[in-house]
Amino acid sequence: MRAGRLDYLLFDVADETLKRVFKEIGAEVNYNFLESKCQLKGQEIADNPEVFSAGLESLLLSGASMIEKMILENLYSKLQLKFSEKKITGFQIT
To answer: How many CA atoms lie within 13 A of 77 on its CB side?
Structure first.
């Protein structure tokens, strides 16, 4: 899979997950926060996953880890891979 397609896939999966959890208006609140407080536009999530993760944590506090897990599960599903839960720290598996 080409890097550009993977970047788009990650944004698409994050967007889909945020909209599933927070509905359209809540996802927009997340994006507005990320853009105003973290200088991160939605389409830049794949380029700056650490900033995205930190922004989610700043906005959602302890709920951020659950959203990140849901995004990763959704991504694995789209790639037809088996998701095996490990300790996840901001999109980094340890």
So the answer is: 11
Neighbouring residues of 14: CB distance < 8 A, sequence distance ≥ 6 = 42, 45, 52, 71
Separation CA 29–CA 50 (nearest Å): 19
* CA distance linking residue 72 with residue 88, whole number of Å: 10
- Alpha-carbon distance of 63 to 48, in angstroms, equals 20
Tell whether the model's pLDDT for residue 91 goes beyond 90.
Answer: no
pTM of the model: 0.81
Alpha carbon of residue 1 to chain centroid: 19
